[in-house]
Design brief:
single chain, about 500 residues, alpha+beta
């Protein structure tokens, strides 16, 4: 983008930039149709601005016209080479590209994702229950419970930390079709390309020297956060119907703010929303098609195919006098033979293409959902060798955080204990005091979780103030210790009875 194009975008959006300092702008990224710059305003503050120049917009529209012409030419010269459903899917993709060119659309969808995250946090959700679905339907995703590291053999949660899911705040006063002002996120994406930058963030979160974090530790850290982000994507979709159709690790940023782990979803120009009934239909159709792969009986296969067709009636758009449901049912049976192969999500997309020939058209939101699922699956699949390597790293990572087999801390809420000791990594004498206390008194899960949340909210304080907060926590826990005095002895009728010291409430 030339400086003249940038100025035009900034002026169009009414961004009060400082023209004398425009050459001090910092480019934060450039994509195929736009770029992101940090701009200095007249107030002296900085603003992150995403821009799409008119020349880029013209180029994209020109490319799409050429692609449409080529597609029409292929269809004319080889009529059977591209199915009607596939052609429709391609045109739907073209439409989604056009939507991404308009940054007002991205601003609105970013706000929608923020509303969806808040709805999930406050339980203002679809509240779809598993018993509302057929028993063969795919299981609804559980609510993610913070960032957890589990023991590879026992499944025991060894570390659990709270996580906030967010989107960058967008400035409604500085948004136009070609420019969008937004909050600056001081973080790093989860893409493999940005993994080296992730080391300092991991050290900040885990409160350890970054030189102690090996490349293998860093790989485990990145993959576990990717898994967490994708799990939240699935849960948010299942309970709000909202999802980013372009979900990949480069569109996920992580930060540590006030000691807490924050995961940001970014670049939401291709986000979509579907209804509650559509969510139920997607989990039902996935389960029914899976059953078709496992079922050989003609009658049962017919029943599952009927269920798939019923779901397509919920998801699709059609004219009742033109839709050929019998033909579509046969397409389902042909696509999912007994003991057939291939990923179910991709099979569903193939089915959507075949449905078009039966005069049933799938909305682009529904097609985008399954394409997004395929994209996510491609990013979380790792080899067995890599998985075994990661399993060996987990105990090493826990030891790095300060708890190993020689620790005198009793078993119990190991995740809470590890989180607490992790926060005190840089306060060895206070950490040792807490270890001794936890060896003496029995703390409930709620007490540990409260202590961790309190210290997390105050970890940004200066060291002396944070130390005083830990001192206060130790004082409160010391009050729970039993009095240090010998058992009392009372005589009655010539006999003596020993009474134990009182048990603390």
């Amino acid at each position: 983008m030339t400086e003249a194009e940038l100025i035009h975008c900034l002026d169009e959006a009414g961004i009060d930039y400082n023209p004398e300092r425009l050459n001090e702008r910092r480019n934060l990224g450039t994509g195929s149709i736009g770029e992101v710059n940090e701009i200095i305003l007249k107030s002296g503050e900085s603003l992150i601005v995403k821009t799409v120049s008119e020349s880029s917009e013209t180029r994209v529209y020109s490319d799409l016209r050429v692609l449409r012409f080529v597609l029409g030419l292929i269809t004319f010269l080889a009529p059977g080479s591209i199915g009607k459903g596939t052609k429709h899917a391609i045109f739907s993709f073209f439409d989604s590209v056009k939507e991404e060119l308009n940054l007002i659309t991205e601003a609105n969808r970013t706000r929608q994702q923020d509303f969806a995250f808040k709805a999930v946090a406050q339980q203002h959700i679809f509240d779809i229950r598993q018993d509302e679905l057929p028993d063969y339907a795919y299981a609804l995703p559980p609510r993610p419970n913070g960032w957890e590291i589990r023991h590879p053999d026992t499944g025991t949660v060894l570390l659990s930390l709270p996580v906030n899911f967010k989107v960058p705040a967008v400035d409604g006063n500085t948004a136009s079709a070609h420019a969008l002002g937004m909050e600056k996120i001081d973080g790093v994406t989860l893409s493999e390309h940005d993994q080296p930058k992730l080391r300092s963030l991991a050290a900040k979160l885990l409160n350890i020297d970054e030189t102690n974090i090996s490349d293998d530790h860093l790989l485990a850290f990145r993959l576990s956060l990717k898994k967490l982000a994708f799990e939240h994507w699935f849960y948010c979709y299942a309970q709000t119907g909202f999802f980013n159709a372009d979900m990949h690790d480069g569109n996920v940023m992580v930060t540590v703010e006030d000691g807490r782990l924050n995961i940001y979803f970014i670049d939401l120009g291709n986000a979509q929303k579907v209804s509650r009934d559509a969510v139920k239909a997607t989990y039902t159709i996935l389960g029914a098609m899976e059953q078709l792969r496992e079922e050989s009986g003609v009658a049962r296969r017919s029943q599952y195919a009927d269920q798939v067709v019923q779901c397509l009636k919920t998801l699709g758009e059609y004219e009742s006098d033109k839709a050929n449901w019998d033909k579509l049912k046969q397409e389902v049976l042909n696509l999912m033979p007994y003991r057939g192969e291939g990923k179910i999500d991709q099979k569903v997309i193939d089915l959507f293409n075949r449905a078009y020939n039966c005069n049933v058209k799938m909305p682009k939101e529904t097609v985008a959902l399954f394409r997004a699922k395929v994209l996510i699956d491609s990013q979380i699949t790792i080899t067995d060798e890599a998985r075994r390597s990661l399993d060996r790293i987990v105990p090493s990572l826990i030891k790095l955080l300060g708890r190993d087999a020689s620790s005198s801390v009793p078993l119990g809420n190991i995740a809470g204990q590890n989180a607490l000791l992790m926060l005190l990594r840089q306060l060895p004498e206070l950490r040792q005091q807490l270890i001794e206390l936890m060896s003496t008194i029995q703390l409930t899960d709620e007490e540990l979780e409260y202590a961790v949340s309190q210290l997390l909210s105050k970890i940004h304080l200066p060291p002396d103030e944070f130390r005083r907060e830990v001192d206060e926590l130790i004082r409160q826990w010391q009050m729970q210790m039993p009095p240090a005095h010998p058992a009392q002895t009372h005589s009655h009728a010539g006999s003596s009875t020993a009474y134990p010291p009182p048990v603390p409430a």
